[in-house]
Tat proofreading chaperone DmsD
Amino acid sequence: MNVQQKSYSRAKADGTLDLLGDAEFLEAYAATAKLLGTCFAYSPKEEASMRALAAIRSMDVASDWPFDAEAEEGTTGETSMRAQAASLIEDGLSEDEASLAQEYQRLFVGPGHLAAAPWGSVYLDRDKVLYGCSWVELRAWMREHDVVVKYDEHVPEDQIGRILVLSAEVALQKRELLPELLGNHMLPWAGHYFNLLLADARLATYKGLAQLAHATITDVQMLLGITPANRRLYR
């Protein structure tokens, strides 16, 4: 029987600059995580979401987005996840606000079954429920470290958009906590979630955002030397 690793670990520094002390890295992560998180946390009907999406669409993502990772085996086309995301986002430029809002509702809100449920506890809790044990653990961690981010209180903190925005704030305000937040509370489930979102999304825009977010967290995990907590996924 495999014993699950209850907490993340981090590779020891080998003499290279620890990126937690690199302001440029932290600012780049915070900016990208906030843009992506805002797109996932709010409907395109909300001004903040449309501004974030417009900012991403205005970029040359394939060359200017600061994080990248190799595409997973079995995918076709570009070998870079960032390049794949850039192509999808470009394909989605013709998708209008009404279509995007309808797709957001289907992917992130419902009603009905969500093939890619955007809440961590749906994957990490044995009962596959909102506000499950992993959400309780995240809330306790936030209280312990006095981490406060303003949100709509009706949305769990482990909603993918919220936790990305949370990680952006932590990167800027409490950088020493970033590996723990990522390693214990986001990375154990987020990569799996982004694969599900990529498969379920019908519009190129959300496929591209899913791939771009996956590339970003994969690269940051590698750069910070994080081995995520080994958590069983129940979905």
Remarks:
- Strands lie at 9-10, 226-227.
- The longest helix spans residues 178-200.
- Residues 20-227 form a domain with the TorD-like fold (CATH 1.10.3480.10).
